Amino acid sequence: MNAKIRMWFEDRIPFNREKTAETTKELLNEPIPKHMKNWFYALGVTPLILFCFMVVTGIMLTFYYIPSPEKAFDSVRYITEEVSMGFWIRGIHRWASNLMVIAIFLHVIRVFFTRGYRKPRELNWILGILMLGATFTLCFTGYSLVNNQLSYWASTVGTNMIKEIPLIGPSVLALLRGGENVTANTLTRFYNLHILIMPALLFVLIGLHMLLVRLHGVAKLEDDDKEETYPFFPEHFYHGLVIMFLLLTLISALTVILPPGLGEPADPTVTPAHIKPEWYFFAVYSLLKFIPLQAGIILIMALVIAATFWPFIDEWIRKKKPNLKTHYVVGSLTIIIFLFFTVYEILVH
Ligand code: HEM
User: Fold this and answer.
1) Model-level pTM greater than 0.70?
2) d(CA 96, CA 57)
3) What is the pLDDT, as a whole number, of residue 223?
4) By the 8 A CB rule, do 68 and 265 touch?
5) Predicted local distance difference test score (pLDDT) of residue 10
6) What parts of the chain have a pLDDT lower than 50?
7) CB of 117 shorter than 6 A to ligand 1
């Protein structure tokens, strides 16, 4: 019977069985450098797993969420307080997004300090920067969907900054808000960005990123081209599975200990005393208080451009001064400045 069913499918989906088996074997035998046994080097799989958690729980949330200013807050309250396991699904979604940002930060730090972006992996670095942008947009739009006081005012202040981008700022702002102010149009746009455009973009970018990782193989440690390797299956694959179960346990525990809150419903007529974005925007938010807004936005754009093309800048410096470890200095300074402004924002409010 089984053979009959298999043949029925094989007649209708004509693939070459030997070739498929060969490709699968090749994929499973992918040589992985020995240093990837250390968890810090193998962090790339963590955001991938978290993204999958977010997609599954996000789809579940759309069954109840209503993207209209009058009903959004109430629908989130209904999910949290009345839907069976609703607070857990919402909590997993929220905590997964926070951990995804942390995991990406750690992944970027490891890639940066091991110069994993060096030739021929520059394109994968640029894809990474795009993924970082898509992840932040996903987080920012998601936070705004709750439509409570904090999320409403954070999205108002956040989108206000866009106006300061030279030349295109006002048009991008109008496009994003669907008018001059944050209204029902804005919520619909954020909803579309959050459930459709950004996840689809991230899906494609992650696919390309993984394809390049597969085609190049993971970079061996610098100055150690003779490093030993081991096959992807079973050891590396099992590491991924263990990380997945650990993450699910951690996120579930966090959801029970610190369940997602609701706050007060949005009121466009009352500005709260302290407007707070999510923690990963604290550094930028705090920095912009020290310099005029437009100068700050131009500075941030310049930093993003420098970060995008960093592999080429680093290579250029290395050709001029081969012994200079510029990436250590730049990486350490970036982390110190980021932590300084983040902690400052936490202490001030
Ligand atoms: C959704 C986010 C991301 C996912 C799922 C992801 C996934 C991965 C995976 C699985 C690897 C293989 C090595 C490892 O496990 O560490 C990798 C390598 C790499 N990633 Fe990412 N990554 C993400 C974001 C980023 C970002 C934001 C950057 C940089 C800005 C980046 C740059 C790189 C580079 C250059 C490599 C090759 C490094 C090497 O071969 O040693 N990635 N990524």
Assistant:
1) yes
2) 10
3) 67
4) no
5) 86
6) none
7) yes
Question: 168-193 burial string, b = 16+ CB within 10 Å, else e?
Answer: eeeeebeebbbeeebeeebbebbbeb
Rounded to whole angstroms, the Cα distance separating 314 from 319 reads 9
H or E element, residue 33: strand 31-33
What are the respective helix, strand and coil percentages of the chain, to the nearest 5?
70, 0, 25
Q: What is the mean pLDDT of the chain?
A: 93
Q: Is 12 exposed, middle or buried (0-12, 13-18, 19+ CB in 10 A)?
A: exposed
The residue type of 74 is D
Residue 188 backbone phi and psi in degrees, to 5 = -65, -40
Contacts for 11 with CB less than 8 Å, ≥ 6 apart = none
Quick one: pLDDT at residue 304?
97
Using most ligand atoms within 8 A of CB, pick from 104, 107, 115, 239 the residue to mutate for ligand 1. 107
Cα–Cα dist 300/294, whole Å: 10
Going from the Cα of 157 to the center of ligand 1, the distance in angstroms, rounded, reads 31
pLDDT at 1: 63
Residue 153: what are its φ and ψ, rounded to 5°?
A: -75, -30
DSSP character at residue 253: H
Task: Locate 216 and state its tokens.
Answer: 């190049």
**Ligand 1 pocket check for 115: Cβ under 6 Å:** no
- Is the distance from the beta carbon of residue 83 to the nearest atom of ligand 1 less than 6 Å? no
Kindly report the protein residue whose alpha carbon is nearest to atom 9 of ligand 1. 44
Structure tokens given for 254: 């966090």
- Asked if residues 236 and 230 have their Cβ atoms less than 8 Å apart, the reply is yes
Of 55, 261, 228, which is closest to residue 150 (Cα–Cα)?
Answer: 261
Residues present in the chain in total:
349
Domains by residue range for the chain, with CATH = 42-277 (1.20.810.10)
Q: Amino acid letter at 2?
A: N
